[in-house]
Write a sequence for this structure.
């Protein structure tokens, strides 16, 4: 593999008083206690072990993550997206109405919905989960450990303009949200727990994708590299050239390096990238790594392994296990048949989902779901589903601290 390193450019911003309009906006923060609105009955059966949720054209499968058995098949219409809610029992299903709560451990869809105009990103981190409504710019924040009792108390924040955005809440109550409007996105703003502005950066055009790495450093993808936030400071890590888009990033608590996709053609309807990015937030460097010739990947190919390994499922059907520090491939595991990324991003393609030591890979062409052991380099279980799986997620969280 070929690697190239590029040095960083730092941006320091002093905290400054909020202008009157921003201060009034901060005072408009809304906290509401929403009662339990028709939560579905809990199943009396045994809880589903390590529940997984796979979407298909017409509904959801809830699977036992240890056996890969389908425990529940839930019919639902429309294009469905699934994300961890932030605890060890629930998954949020994105529908046209908002974010609907699925009790994955019982295999039951509840009546609880966080309504949102054009629901977008879901970001669970620590003790808070943040939901972003692209159509309004509204951010909904809640403690996911309260989900077992119904709809939790929520804090609602607003963005100046609606956009395809994201927000992340840190352990001290501070938060970062993106800046933009329906036509373009420019960067991010950080606020303390009292909603006073800490810092901002407008050096992340097309900001998209977020993750948190070691030291609670937040990483965003940009059309010209990456933007990080740590210790009240935004730092720009530039990509080579005028255009080097990172739109998907994956982090791990035990690594200062984020894994990102990397695209170089601003005019491509669909670019099938052959390079990926390793974003070193400790050294503030961006390293580009090239996959073998003719091998590309999609935005659902990226994940992190149990020991912070960077994982990429290539179109050759192999799972590449990569040392995030060096960029070297330490192992390849044959998982699926060769595949081609579809033109429509909503169409199924192989997807990687990781949780602790478990690595799951879908193969829509064969309607299969595989469980991969990174240490042994083997596929240890395979299940064939009735319908081709599309998105894959699961309950990922911890007990309340």
């Amino acid at each position: 593999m070929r690697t190239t390193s590029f040095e960083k450019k730092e941006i320091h911003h002093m905290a400054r008083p909020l202008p009157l309009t921003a201060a009034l906006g901060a005072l408009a923060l809304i906290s509401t206690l929403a009662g339990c609105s028709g939560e579905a009955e809990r199943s009396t059966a045994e809880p589903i072990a390590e529940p997984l949720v796979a979407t298909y054209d017409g509904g959801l499968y809830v699977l036992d993550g240890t056996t890969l058995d389908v425990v529940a098949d839930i019919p639902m219409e429309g294009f469905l997206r699934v994300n961890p809610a932030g605890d060890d029992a629930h998954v949020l299903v994105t529908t046209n109405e908002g974010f609907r709560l699925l009790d994955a451990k019982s295999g039951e869809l509840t009546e609880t919905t966080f309504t949102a105009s054009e629901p977008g990103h879901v970001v669970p981190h620590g003790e808070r989960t943040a939901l972003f409504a692209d159509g309004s710019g509204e951010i909904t924040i809640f403690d996911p450990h309260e989900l077992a009792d119904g709809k939790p108390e929520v804090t609602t924040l607003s963005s100046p303009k609606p956009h395809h955005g994201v927000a992340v809440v840190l352990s001290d109550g501070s938060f970062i949200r993106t800046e933009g409007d329906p036509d373009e996105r420019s960067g991010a703003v950080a606020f303390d727990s009292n909603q006073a502005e800490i810092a901002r950066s407008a050096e992340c055009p097309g900001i998209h994708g977020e993750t948190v790495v070691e030291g609670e450093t937040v990483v965003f993808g940009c059309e010209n590299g990456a933007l990080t936030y740590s210790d009240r400071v935004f730092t720009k890590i530039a990509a080579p050239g005028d255009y080097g888009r990172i739109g998907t990033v994956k982090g791990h608590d035990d690594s200062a390096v984020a894994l990102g996709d990397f695209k170089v053609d601003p005019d491509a309807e669909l670019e099938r990238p052959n390079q990926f990015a390793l974003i070193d937030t400790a050294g503030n460097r961006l390293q580009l790594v090239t996959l073998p010739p003719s091998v590309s990947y999609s935005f659902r190919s990226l994940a992190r392994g149990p020991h912070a390994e960077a994982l990429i499922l290539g179109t050759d059907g192999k799972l590449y296990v990569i040392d995030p520090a060096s960029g070297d491939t330490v192992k390849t595991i044959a998982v699926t048949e060769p595949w081609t990324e579809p033109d429509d991003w909503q169409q199924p393609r192989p997807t990687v989902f990781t949780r602790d030591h478990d690595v799951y890979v879908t193969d829509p062409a064969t309607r299969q779901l595989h469980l991969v052991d990174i240490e042994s380099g083997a596929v240890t279980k395979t299940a064939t589903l009735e319908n081709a799986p599309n998105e894959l997620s699961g309950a990922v969280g911890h007990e309340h601290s």
